[in-house]
User: Fold this.
Amino acid sequence: MKKKGFKVLTLAMMLALGTTAMSAYAAEGWTMSNNAWTYLDAKDNKVRDEWRKGADNLWRYLNYKGEMAISTWVDDEYYVDSNGIMVSNQWVKTKPQYEDDAEDAWFYFGSSGKAAKDGWKKIDGKNYLFDGDGVMQTGWTEDSLYYLGNDGAVKTGWKYLAEPDEEESDWTVEYAGPESADGKYWFYFGSNGKKYCPESSGSEDPYRVVKISGDYYCFDEYGRMMTGWVYLNGDVRSADSDSIEGWRYFAEKEISGATLGASIKGWLSLVPPEVIQDEIGEDVVWYYFGVNGAPEVGPEKGEASTSNFKRINSKSYLFDALGNPVSGLCKVEIANTGEYTSYYFDPDSKLAITGKETIEEADGTESVFYFNESSSAGRGYTGVKNNYLYYMGKRQEAEDGMKYAAITMKIDGVNKTYVVNESGRITKGKEVKDDDGTKFKTDENGILTHVDGVAVGSKVFESPIEPVFED
Assistant:
């Protein structure tokens, strides 16, 4: 009881001291009346519905009865505490004005004493949102771009949340991202509090791929983090079944105790996207992913160029349009020159082989090939190698029933004609007779000089036989 009396005495001092200015008629200032503080003007009348300062220079409000208001709203914008002092730079938990049946809510009153209303306000370095009545908001904002914690502050970084109710639709149910048992999703909010989604970046794309702490992540139009295969161009039903173009892969990855869908870099054996599985014909295939989750992709079959080769760990690979490293015998253009050669990619390692190899061509024929071993390693050789003639890697041989064949091919831009036997070996510095009696004479380099004693000059003979590739 003594403490309470002391408090009342102190309040009286704060109200009264310094306010004893006199007029010819009466004293103006604070006075206690019927256990309530009032303020008398110079004519000894109670001041009503007005603000007045106490000796402590703090504002207090006189209500319609002329009594100092306590613990209540004033003028729709201000609030006075239990001592009647106007609140400023302070949080207050109370009922919204004119809503006695409502639950208590948090309000913030600024330096002027006015409640923050209808917008954003930065308080102690954190951003808060208030409605038209000044109630501090929590949860998702109306535009679903921000999330406010129970403390009202805008959240940043990774958050595991249920999506806003208004986001529900047939499309989201059918094509929703990875969903946990409790129906929540991972969202990421930037330093400004705005969630990562196409809308927040001003894009109309269906997905947004963003680099976060060194890894790439994918977010759909609702901001939900995606995992697995994602078709960035939109509805998977519109995806081309003949190409992996437009697809990205985001693997589940444990990061700080959370399972997130981060991009990976390197080789990974995966089940292909469903829409292209029939085209691939295999349940699981190898893919090579760049840092942003994009699989390495090459041209359509038969359209490859050496410029399409991908160098990985000092080794060269060629990928097809479905994102798979090719294998077998392939026709490849030489660096946009319009000239073609062959490469053979080992079915197991997917690497281009070098040296001599017997290979089954697309028509089932087995032929001897030679592929460069040093510069342009793996490229089908054209020219003479170890006394044998090759074109686009394939050994040139006389046809069945003939001992020899005169074959003309362009080497280093110049037409040269060689005479080869049934095994592909060239004839050097001598004259040989074919089964039909034709005589071929060659110089010491194997170049044909005379046929039946007549100089050949620039005459062109048989064209080389190309390898047989798959259509």
Summary: The helical segments are 2-16, 170-175, 274-280.
